[in-house]
């Protein structure tokens, strides 16, 4: 799963400056975008989030057409690819103060899409509770920025291959998301997903579900509420709609809401398997 | 103030892999170390913090002797230098899960020490209140890790050269620190500094002050308490002991506690000026 093709500011390269603010301070954003036969069904949502993040961080936004050309170039020839676009504030002098006229660094890298078993989509996946809790920071919440130590620490808690994901609470004990996916649940007949106003990432797949299901509610979600859900599923721009079979000892069955959203995903152009 | 000499894993280089987890996730730590005529008076404290951070993040700690040799090599010939040591979890596959056997990337870079006017040390500096608030995350608090977007956003709030620093509150409204320095105040005859258990960085200069003044108290500090302080000063491993002349409209005078700590700093081997 190593990156085999990378463009840095449009040119083939596999390195960047040690003085880049991306490595110095995590001063930047990224998107990981699923391509299927050369097309990225959620491209517009990825671009929207990237532009929003640039606006919030004060980083000049990249040209969307240029990003798409480069993403297509690095993923060309692969039926299933993941393209990571990383945008940093670029090289700068030492110190937190951003350069007055930043020259962002744009890294566009293609990876083979992760192999997922069909069973994951049919029967669902087992997930665990993480001990790592998400800190609260409304200024950064929702963005897919490069400050991801919380996710690294959470994902470092376990290594069993049979458990592909873990759920995260925030410091107040509310359920927020998985380490690399958002979470939806059907509770008392209502489709709900946690707010990402104080922590967490506003996933593009989450946005797609919210758009397809305007009756869904963005809310606070306590662990005991989740325990009584009829259905639980995870959403990821890369992996799609993943039914949750069990959270720890609590067992769920993929239900009609999950199945309908999986069909919606197929309709967007994502295959159900090898997703 | 550009880095003119850099070693990456011991070899002269000015780039690192785009697949480094330092840029992908801010997955690493750093130290900025003041060297005076080839010596770093706070070296042991920097090394201790780096080792502590490695333990907390699960990154193999670098060899301290090797770090010192490399720091001495890149700063050789400069009377006043700042050496930044950046340690990342190294190159890894895509995804938050840390490699089972990480090969850290060690970047050792020398910079000219920032020029500071003697006036800053004699009369003190003017600082402002930042609107950016520090989020709460005990798992990361205290460490000098590479997830520094909060400091970048805070430092981006102003550009007046006459105001070298800004003070940060946390989400609960407690005073924590400046953007790149810790804060001490003399209140009702007691030397106090905010706790960095939930956010903020445990500065090496802060540790030195706490060691020199075992009567100092680590506490919560409200803005209104700070307003009634007799003395306020900032501490930085790079810049030393900086009296605060004013926070916004509130004026302070450098007092005996600040002066005694400045003398202590000179005794460590730091010059008062060109600090």
UniProtKB/TrEMBL annotation, chains A, B:
InterPro entries xrefs: Aminodeoxychorismate_lyase_IV (IPR017824), Aminotrans_IV (IPR001544), Aminotransferase-like (IPR036038), BCAT-like_C (IPR043132), BCAT-like_N (IPR043131), Class-IV_PLP-Dep_Aminotrnsfr (IPR050571)
Q: Got a GO cellular component term for this one?
A: cytosol
Keyword annotations from UniProtKB, A to Z? Folate biosynthesis, Lyase, Pyridoxal phosphate
Give the pathway.
Cofactor biosynthesis; tetrahydrofolate biosynthesis; 4-aminobenzoate from chorismate: step 2/2
- EC main group: lyase
**The organism's lineage?**
Bacteria, Pseudomonadati, Pseudomonadota, Gammaproteobacteria, Lysobacterales
**In the UniProt record, does the keyword DNA-binding occur?**
no
Q: What is this protein called?
A: Aminodeoxychorismate lyase
Q: Where are the transmembrane segments?
A: none
CDD domains attached here? ADCL_like
Q: Which reaction does it catalyse?
A: 4-amino-4-deoxychorismate = 4-aminobenzoate + pyruvate + H(+)
């Amino acid at each position: 799963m190593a990156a085999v093709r990378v463009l840095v500011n449009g040119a083939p390269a596999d390195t960047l400056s040690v003085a880049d603010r991306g490595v110095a301070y995590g001063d930047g954003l990224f998107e990981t975008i699923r391509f299927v036969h050369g097309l990225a069904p959620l491209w517009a949502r990825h671009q929207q989030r990237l532009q929003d993040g640039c606006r919030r961080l004060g980083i000049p936004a990249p040209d969307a057409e240029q990003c798409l050309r480069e993403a297509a170039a690095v993923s060309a020839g692969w039926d299933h690819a993941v393209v990571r676009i990383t945008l940093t504030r670029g090289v700068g002098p030492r110190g937190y103060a951003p350069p007055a006229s930043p020259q962002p660094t744009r890294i566009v890298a293609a990876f083979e899409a992760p192999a997922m078993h069909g069973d994951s989509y049919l029967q669902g996946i087992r997930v665990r509770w993480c001990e790592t809790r998400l800190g609260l920071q409304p200024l950064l919440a929702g963005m897919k920025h490069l400050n991801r130590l919380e996710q690294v620490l959470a994902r470092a808690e376990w290594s069993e291959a049979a458990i592909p994901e873990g759920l995260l609470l925030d410091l107040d004990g509310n359920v927020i998301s998985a380490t690399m996916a958002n979470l939806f649940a059907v509770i008392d007949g209502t489709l709900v997903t946690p707010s990402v106003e104080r922590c967490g990432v506003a996933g593009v797949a989450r946005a797609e579900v919210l758009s397809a299901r305007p009756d869904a509610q963005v809310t606070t979600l306590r662990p005991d509420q989740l325990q009584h859900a009829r259905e639980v599923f995870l959403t990821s721009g890369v992996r799609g709609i993943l039914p949750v079979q069990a959270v720890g000892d609590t067992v769920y069955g993929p239900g009609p809401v999950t199945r309908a959203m999986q069909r919606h995903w197929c309709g967007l152009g994502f295959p159900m398997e090898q997703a």
